[in-house]
């Protein structure tokens, strides 16, 4: 309640000074005027719906980061100019641009074993759980996804009622805790999984192996954010830290992983099943590729999470330092799938720092088929980058379970902002591709992206990285891949 004290004190001062002006000296109007004006401003903050921080912090919310406006928020995601430093990158425009596509491109997700394929948008909501986010934030993201016809990843916290109420297309993420479909022994409850996967809102299922913010570390939801609602959804004690184990218990080898994916697809009625990971050792993903070849099975999609991913709750010691950055991870996964002849069968998603149309096109050039955004979607729903996600005291009502704070987040308004952000970002990506002479993502090549490697020296991605030919790893791997390919074992990670 301390957040409302400034408004209350100003209102009391206004009442006292106005009374004194009427009953005593007219000089009191010098104090009553500003106090009344501030009271009106604070009351307006309290009832307006557009700015969550002002709604939660009347008067004082105007003094924080949110009040700095578009310039500060733009600076948070703005890259340095393409000529400002070594390592900067730029896309190559064409002297013969084309008209932008009228309809935003979509990507068909679903391999030969999939009977219910899904058309994925170029930009979607990345994995963010109910618990990590408030119910209102989850609902706003879902309604925004429904308005814009793109997908929302549930995060590993499970398929909550708030995700379903949003009405959008859902990618149900299952992590090592198997929240929402966990059996008594800690494994997967197949019957419950099948029942939930059959829901029409669930379009795909993503099996999380690791995440960019903390690969190999599992996940932690602080007890301060484990409300009664969250505890019920996850089937955990209220107010106690929820710790997801670092590894799955349903499989322990690449071969077992592929067999588990196939069983998930069957239980889900033929809906697309994919995996999500932050790439570490290249030979480990090659081991998964060897298992694909050995079993004749493959996931329908692979989401590559960059080490630079994560929200304000990401552990500072590992974020950006553990696992491959998104660029290298995408190039590795794309090349591995091409090299074993399975790239046409498996779609690749990219997540980790995606925020602008330039980011979307860049990731498509690097090997992705579509992208996911978490941080940018949080900004769209009202996040002010306060860095308090782990405390339960988010001033914008986005990353908290405190009902007095979440009341400031107006779902309908934020849903429109989410839809508008996604629509305009994809439109920007389509315009950029058109300026490059490309109408569809399939026309992009590594030559379309150039990096400055030294003053006066630039090289395209076609020259910076080695790009394998289809089936090249099977025919005879190049020297740079040979040792990892030989070390890859379908029956062992690492």
Automatic annotation (TrEMBL):
<dbReference type="InterPro" id="IPR013785">
    <property type="entry name" value="Aldolase_TIM"/>
</dbReference>
<dbReference type="InterPro" id="IPR002932">
    <property type="entry name" value="Glu_synthdom"/>
</dbReference>
<protein>
    <submittedName>
        <fullName>FMN-binding glutamate synthase family protein</fullName>
    </submittedName>
</protein>
<comment type="similarity">
    <text>Belongs to the glutamate synthase family.</text>
</comment>
<dbReference type="Pfam" id="PF01645">
    <property type="entry name" value="Glu_synthase"/>
</dbReference>
<feature type="domain" description="Glutamate synthase">
    <location>
        <begin position="123"/>
        <end position="438"/>
    </location>
</feature>
<dbReference type="GO" id="GO:0006537">
    <property type="term" value="P:glutamate biosynthetic process"/>
</dbReference>
<dbReference type="GO" id="GO:0015930">
    <property type="term" value="F:glutamate synthase activity"/>
</dbReference>
């Amino acid at each position: 309640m301390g957040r409302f004290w400034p408004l209350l004190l100003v209102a009391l001062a206004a009442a006292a000074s106005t009374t004194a002006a009427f009953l005593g000296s007219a000089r009191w109007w010098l104090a009553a005027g500003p106090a009344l004006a501030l009271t009106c401003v604070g009351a307006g903050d309290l009832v307006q719906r557009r700015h969550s921080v002002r709604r939660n912090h009347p008067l004082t919310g105007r003094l924080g980061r949110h009040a700095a406006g578009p310039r500060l928020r733009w600076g948070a995601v703005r890259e340095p100019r393409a000529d400002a430093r070594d390592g900067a990158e730029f896309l190559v425009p064409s002297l013969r641009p084309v008209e932008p596509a009228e309809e935003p491109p979509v990507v068909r997700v679903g391999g030969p074993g999939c009977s219910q394929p899904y058309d994925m948008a170029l930009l979607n909501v990345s994995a963010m759980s109910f618990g990590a986010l408030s119910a209102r934030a989850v609902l706003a993201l879902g309604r925004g996804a429904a308005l814009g016809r793109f997908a929302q990843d549930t995060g590993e916290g499970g398929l909550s009622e708030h995700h379903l109420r949003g009405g959008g297309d859902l990618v149900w993420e299952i992590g090592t805790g198997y929240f929402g479909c966990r059996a008594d022994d800690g494994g997967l409850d197949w019957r419950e999984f099948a029942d939930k996967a059959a829901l029409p809102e669930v379009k795909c299922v993503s099996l999380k192996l690791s995440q960019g913010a903390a690969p190999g570390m599992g996940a932690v939801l602080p007890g301060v954010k484990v409300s009664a609602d969250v505890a019920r959804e996850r089937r955990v004690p209220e107010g106690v830290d929820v710790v997801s184990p670092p590894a799955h218990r349903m499989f322990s080898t690449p071969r077992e992983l592929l067999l588990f994916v196939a069983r998930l697809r069957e239980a889900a009625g033929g809906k697309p099943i994919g995996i999500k990971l932050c790439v570490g050792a290249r030979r480990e993903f090659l081991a998964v590729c060897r298992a694909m070849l050995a079993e004749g099975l493959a996931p329908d999609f692979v989401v590559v999470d960059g080490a630079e991913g994560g929200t304000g709750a990401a552990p500072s010691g590992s974020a950006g330092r553990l696992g491959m950055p998104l660029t290298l991870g995408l190039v590795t996964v794309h090349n591995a799938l091409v090299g074993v002849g399975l790239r046409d069968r498996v779609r690749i998603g990219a997540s980790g720092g995606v925020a602008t149309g330039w980011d979307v096109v860049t990731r498509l050039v690097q090997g992705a088929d579509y992208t996911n955004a978490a941080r940018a979607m949080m900004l769209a729903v009202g996040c002010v980058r306060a860095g308090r996600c782990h405390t339960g005291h988010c001033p914008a009502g986005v990353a908290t379970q405190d009902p007095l704070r979440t009341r400031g987040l107006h779902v309908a308004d934020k849903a429109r902002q989410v839809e508008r952000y996604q629509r305009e970002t994809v439109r920007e990506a389509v315009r950029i591709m058109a300026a490059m002479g490309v109408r569809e993502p399939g026309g992009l090549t590594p030559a379309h992206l150039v990096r400055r490697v030294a003053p006066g020296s630039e090289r395209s991605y076609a020259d910076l990285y080695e790009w394998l030919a289809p089936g090249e790893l099977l025919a005879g791997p190049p020297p740079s891949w040979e040792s990892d390919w030989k070390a890859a074992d379908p029956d062992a990670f690492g």
